[in-house]
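testing teh design pipeline on a random one, pls ignore if ur not involved
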């Protein structure tokens, strides 16, 4: 038994020598687990990006919002408003792509939309981290959920 082997030896048995029924069961468990992680992380990534859209496109003129983004004064916030309005919609579209892709995957459809959206989000988070080290927390918030979804999706596809 797998559970007994793990507890006694501390390692998993060789999958190739396991009975076919056990291999099918392990594969099914892996598929469901990785798909669940990809869907949950994709939904979280989408929610984060939709939240950023709301902040950048509709709440930007509030002092607490622009201060959270590191802006020091109202004049600078006003000068940035139109650019951030547009940027907010990029975040909305990415977020909707991740949510739509997660829903598709959860229904048993293709993971392509989720994987593309999450790859784009992860890459953008890396760019933020590389170019603006002081925004490392924002980079983690923006990048960890889609990176987890991407890793789980790749694991699910490759299994």
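output:
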């Amino acid at each position: 038994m797998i559970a007994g082997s793990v507890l006694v030896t501390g390692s998993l048995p060789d999958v190739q020598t396991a009975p076919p029924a056990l291999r099918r069961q392990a594969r099914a468990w892996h598929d469901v687990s990785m798909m669940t992680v990809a869907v949950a992380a994709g939904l979280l990534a989408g929610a984060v990006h939709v939240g950023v859209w709301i902040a950048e496109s509709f709440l930007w003129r509030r002092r607490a919002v622009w201060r959270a983004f590191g802006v020091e004064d109202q004049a600078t916030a006003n000068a940035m408003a139109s650019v951030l309005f547009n940027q907010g919609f990029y975040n909305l579209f990415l977020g909707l792509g991740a949510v739509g892709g997660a829903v598709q995957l959860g229904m048993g459809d293709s993971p392509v939309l989720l994987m593309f959206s999450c790859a784009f989000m992860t890459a953008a988070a890396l760019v933020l981290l590389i170019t603006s080290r002081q925004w490392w927390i924002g980079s983690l918030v923006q990048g960890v959920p889609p990176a987890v979804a991407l890793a789980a999706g790749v694991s699910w596809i490759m299994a």
